[in-house]
Structures
1.
Amino acid sequence: MAETKTRIEHDALGAVRVPADRLWGAQTQRSFENFSIGRRNYVWGRAVVRAFGILKKACAAANRELGQLPAELAELIIAAAQEVIDGRWDGEFPLVVFQTGSGTQSNMNANEVIANRAIQMAGGELGSRTLVDPNDHVNRGQSSNDTFPTVMHIAAILALAETLLPAAGRLAAVFAAQSRDFAAIVMTGRTHLQDATPVTLGQIISGWQTQIEAAVKGIEASLPGLYELALGGTAVGTGLNAHPLFGALAAEMIARETGHPFISAPNKFAALSAHDAVVAASGAVRVLAGAAMKIANDVRWYASGPRTGIGELRIPENEPGSSIMPGKINPTQCEALTQVAVQVFGLDHAIAFAGSQGNFQLNVFKPVMLHDFLDETTLLAEALESFRIHCAAGIEPELAHIAAHLEQNLMLVTALNPHIGYERAARIALKAHREGQSLRAAALAEGLKPEDFDAWVDPAAMTRPLDI
């Protein structure tokens, strides 16, 4: 087997052998060797690498404007960072989530890759550090303690804005159209899993629509906390070694790069030592997952059977549902969405616990918080999209089942309350139930006139307030 070619790079602990063809440097290599924890499943993905590129590009631009970096050097760093943003060097970010709790090695990974790429662009030798230094130049005015929380917020905002919120909006739009299309279909309402007074299918689906839209508003309400960036606080929040205007200017440039209104956090001590904004945003995502759970469960109950269950809705038949029962079709999209909701609940709990673990001037659970937040938002966005395409968009009413159940619904008796009183109406309903009669037959047996019953018990009229 051919021996891998290496080069020698150095950090504060001494010399390190790095694969010769890699852009990363000594500190990345040390972390790669020391933390082989979940390497197949927990290596940083595109979202985090992109956020690091955005951060480092903005920092170099800010330092250039503030006279902290020569223009030519800053331009090299900006060009290399842009390539990171564009995804050219994703393979140069091999580190796992479960590393130091501050994300120091991932910050240095970004610094080393961008520095070495800038050296390449300038015609220098990889690892030389003479033209561009990862600490002194790429990391100028920064600490991992303020850069990693900044990456957390950038990645979180982009994940919400580009994946989860659009997916939720598209599902709500499907429900909005169906609530209009099915507005005239009257069906049995149910409370406590028991028959209740009538509703329309449009009203039911409007409830699902409103749940999604309300959850979206909750997520949107959490965004201002994520717009506040820790950058400029450096190691402990004091801003040591950073230009006093650096944090605000870099945040302004990040806002310009992303199109989102990022600002410098007014209090850097909170920004470094606590991550309440991430905890709050995750809680809002959990609310959306809870809404999705309720909706998916409703759909599969309404579609249950199809002959011996409720069977009032028909959903798309996507794949065979059994390896032994021929012709069986299951509500698989509902099952997938509810499983994702459970996963989101678990990830949110992990984020909440990690967010409570700040000590003094630093919280050292940053990487797992970021990973779990991106995981929950991505999973939920994909599940909502799959549910919309393969289930929700194809929902159709089973009119015969709806009509049969409505006709048998003893809670239609509620319409008699204003005319004969609650107690007498209850006697009619119980008589019909215990003697196996129709509600109309029981009412006539109790002395109601047929024309009165027919005028008063109008299921469609029962789906709205009294006409006064």
2.
Amino acid sequence: MSLVFSAITPIFLLVALGAVLKAKAGFSDEFWTMIEKLTFNGLFPALLFVKIAESNVHWPTALPIATAIVIGIHLAAAASIPFRSLLKLNPEKFVAVFQGGFRSNAYVGIAVVLGVLGDDAAGPMAVSMLAVGVTINFLGVVGHLYWLKTPGQNTGVRGVAIDSVKNPLIQACLLGAVFNAVGWGLPPIIGPALNLLSQAALPMGLMAVGAGLSLSAVRGDMMPVALSCACKLLIQPLVTFGFCILFGLSGLALIVPVIFAALPTSSTSYVVSRRMGSDAQLMAAIVTATHLAAIITLPIIILAIT
């Protein structure tokens, strides 16, 4: 349990730093807007590409791991839909609840998996990262386009597919998978540059989250936040565990995808909300609440499956 707590604590410190910088250091809203744009279009895509391209993947277990994760994400997302009308959520709030219920913080996952399970878990971790990265980003984009219907964006199945593929996070995941599958790894010169760039993704993204946090948002939207927490921290790991068992997975091939399903909501969700028009304040509240709750739920789940 102490290993999990040690992996999560630095995240809160960086989030807190972002909040302090915005409140005390005089950085303007325009500054944080540019930081969000940089992380969404450059830093996080670099990180996803680097981690996926250079990982050692054990391909025989890749398909069942990825399938269990994809099913878990979709069912967790679907679980929130009936509550849109029950809670009378406007489109901006609902899309925040929707994506908050399935987006996993892969960077917490990396720290937890390697810290608790060691380097032997790198293969299942790479597969999990790819499955999570592509699925949550595609589904998140679909949710924004379908429910918000932002002017100037494509609609319909074909339009959603086109705009989703244009998403830099999805592009990075797919490109990293290609480089991994053909055995290229990181390209010379460009690869080391992307690796250096990727190292700024986590601190910059987390500080951007901190700059947008609001405890009053958590108190003011308790039901939507609780719904997202339940979908993310309970439904998704339970469904993923069930399908892992159904597919005959065991050992690290079982433990790693369940850990990724049980992670708190990704800190990039706040950046995506700001960039694509959903309720960023509520999204920040969901990110905060799931990280706080995961301090309790994540160790319990890890102890239960190991």
3.
Amino acid sequence: MSESESNKAIDQYNTPMNTQEVPQEAFDWYDEYAHGLMDRRTFLAKLSGLVALGFSMNMLSASLFPNYALAEQVSFNDDEIVAEYTVFPAPKGHGEGRGYLVKPRKLKGKAPVVLVIHENRGLNPYIEDVARRLAKVGFIAFAPDALYPLGGYPGNDDEGRTMQKSLDKAKIEQDFIAASVFLKAHPLSTGKLGAVGFCFGGYIVNMLAATIPDALQAGVPFYGTPAAPALRKNIKGPLLLHFAEFDERVNATWPDYEALLVAQKIDYSAYIYPKVNHGFHNDSTGRYDATNADLAWQRSIDFFKEKLS
């Protein structure tokens, strides 16, 4: 199969198939590709090797690549929420940021606030839906788009990854710090700030816990790597950390990180969910595992309610 044919197959949005039909190595290759550890040509060549063994490229692409039509648990038209895009100042970052702000419609008084942080590809529909889910249960949620300086999330993940990779990582981090300050000071905020992030966003949660420890009252990283070693001594917590059993890349960072949290007597809980891949909470791909995703999310909501009350 030529690369152009493979690209055409990958670009089709299909409903994810039963992931048990897809070999684990395909998920591992996708993780390497999605995180810049494998180039696109190599990734497609490996998938083509599975096609030669009898797997359908449509089945593989449907299981590995997102179909964001599947990731709307809360409609943007839901009458219990109010959503808008708003800008915020980021003087140490890119000057100005923009994000998706979602509030409960029948908010009485003020509410705790939660920053929602996307993966390494910008503010896609899945992350916006996560923000709406938080608003449905009473939080004010804000999901910034790291790609705003380049025009925002482009509508597909491959281009989004390329765009985000082109930006200065230090400025992106400052943008999220600025977003935290903006959200915490929102007129409807109680002043209690939580943060939840996925993959790159999980790293950002860990980074926030180490750079603005007094401002962050609750951090929930999903399969995120820790902040730079020099910063970790600043962490105060509390943290709730979620990991996937098959996520060897991220899990390799956990023993040292956990040892530091224990040594510093940080309030934390960590869960490694069995037989799932990196990205298991993302319901737009075949990596999604409903049972474990629901459990991790309920734990996250309970954690925010406890720590931000």
4.
Amino acid sequence: MTHAALTRLQDGLAALKAEHLERHRRLLDGAQGAHVTIDGQRVVSFCSNDYLGLAADPALVAAAHAALGQCGVGAGAAHLITGHHRFHHDFEAAFARFVGKPAALLFSTGYMANLAVLTALVGRHDEVFADKLNHASLVDAAQLSGACFTRYRHGDLAQLESQLANSPAQDKVIASDLVFSMDGDLAQVDALLDLGERFDAWLYLDDAHGFGVLNDGRGGLTERARASDRVIYLATLGKAAGVSGAAVAAHTGVIDWLIQKARPYIYTTAAPPLLAACLLESLRQIEAGDARRERLRSHIAQLRAGLAGLTLGSLMDSATPIQPLVIGANADAVRLSRELLQRGLLVPAIRTPTVPAGTARLRITLSAAHSVDDVAQLVEALHAVS
């Protein structure tokens, strides 16, 4: 007998393939880095979030080896049972000090952290105001919270102001990416904080792509935002930090509330403590990482100068390691990505629904681990395929 639901899934998969929207997992052999072996091919990778080149750094690898003898592999329990290890505790304290907030809480993933914060802070009498280009995890978290979910046009603070002014909600949260992952531009932190103060709203900032890179590595918070009790700050730790997980930093009362009420924190086994030990070393590397950040800034400038006048697409205005080259049609972006791969360069094609229709792009991400020659090779190839 035909399984009708399965048939519909198969038809949907065929439609995705026809629209150049089918996705595939690539198989990585060896450690992450600027030069990797993917699906058996040695390539220069311009698609990872390893912005500082820490994912396979010898100091972090050594920290993992040292921690194994003290904590083993698994946490063995949730944080509120017996899974909260000294390494978790020490990292939370060090992270809070580094980003300038009173307290912090470690999560297994950034997705879980966003779900935890918004579902613990607001409910059906409240409202979440979100930038239209926020990461999917913030969108899902807002919807699952049960609060009224209101989105404003990307960066349109006049529209946000109007929405806040007309809201009857008891508690309000302004939620925004700090560095927008597909465009590479930055949120207007102090202007958002102005609105939070005027309308008595929390300001929740997801700094997935700024932590480790911006402001001496401390991320995209301004000094005013660091000092504000209404600002809740999230940094993911699998990107520039090179490891895994996410940390939320805020007023001590917020962190205490999350420990009591955040279901994605309470009802899951803690992340392996050896990862927290690696993160402690990662923080040390980030704090002393000015040379890495300077090399990264130099690569960004080299790429942007080299692609001036490129005809195949439009390079978006970004001063971050995320350098989106807008192509337009899904099929064209996929074709260009394949042509670059044939030249030994891995640059992903980003398509709908991740980005709006008609704005498919090559999403170039740079790392301090790249060399000047790596960037020059990419620039030359992009001119050649245009």
